[in-house]
Write a sequence for this structure.
């Protein structure tokens, strides 16, 4: 199983809503990543988890809150988002942070209204 | 972190070999070079990675000169389904504070025509 599964595939939320994006992998990978991608732009790194601990936060606004409950799961909690936060949110995993071969999920298409 | 520079776009025809070059002038000793492919509305997919000289797998070859300041992804005999964005990344594997920072550059949009 070389899949990274993200749910939901699509999400529409209001600016006062609280929602969560979920990511799951069963490859035994110990590094997990969140990226944000706007249309026709490259993915932008947001967070990196290594062995379930946050190791990199790329100065992401606090309205995005990551969580790694166990080695297979990664969540991104969303609160008080702005319309400009609408994007494709990608989750990825790799064997560990020293391994540059990452497996990406299909993403969650988020629209903030 | 080493910044990467690639051509914004390239055109090719089916059956041709395509070479996409990436410049990474300030690559560090502990950096690996990795290439990803991305189709619209999908996550990127790993293609190949290398440290120096030449690496080949079932889909591509990666050529890295001795000074490692650039790399070339070679796609043999492309088809229409190879139309995608190709990203070159330079990643630190040393265990420094930058380890795990897989930073995507602007990428190269390859258009394969019939």
């Amino acid at each position: 199983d070389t899949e990274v599964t993200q749910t939901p595939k699509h999400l529409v939320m209001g600016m006062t809503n609280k929602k969560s994006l979920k990511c799951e992998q069963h490859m035994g990978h110990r590094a997990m990543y969140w990226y944000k991608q706007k249309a026709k732009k490259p993915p932008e790194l947001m967070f990196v988890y290594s062995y379930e601990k946050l190791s990199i936060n790329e100065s992401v606004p606090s309205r995005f809150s990551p969580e790694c409950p166990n080695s297979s799961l990664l969540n991104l909690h969303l609160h008080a988002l702005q319309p400009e936060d609408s994007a494709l949110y990608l989750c990825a995993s790799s064997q560990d942070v020293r391994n540059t071969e990452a497996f990406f999920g299909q993403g969650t298409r988020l629209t903030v209204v | 972190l080493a910044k990467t520079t690639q051509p914004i776009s390239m055109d090719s025809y089916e059956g041709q070999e395509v070479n996409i070059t990436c410049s990474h002038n300030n690559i560090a000793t502990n950096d690996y070079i990795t290439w990803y492919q991305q189709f619209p509305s999908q996550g990127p997919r790993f293609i190949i990675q290398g440290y120096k000289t030449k690496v080949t797998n079932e889909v591509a070859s990666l050529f890295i000169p001795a000074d490692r300041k650039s790399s070339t992804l070679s796609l043999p005999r492309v088809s229409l389904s190879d139309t995608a964005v190709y990203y070159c990344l330079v990643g630190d594997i040393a265990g420094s504070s930058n380890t795990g920072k897989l930073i995507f550059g602007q990428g190269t949009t390859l258009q394969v025509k019939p």
Remarks:
- Chain B has a mean pLDDT of 94.
- The interface with chain A takes residues 32, 34, 41-46, 49, 87, 89, 91, 93-95, 99-107 of chain B (CB under 8 Å).
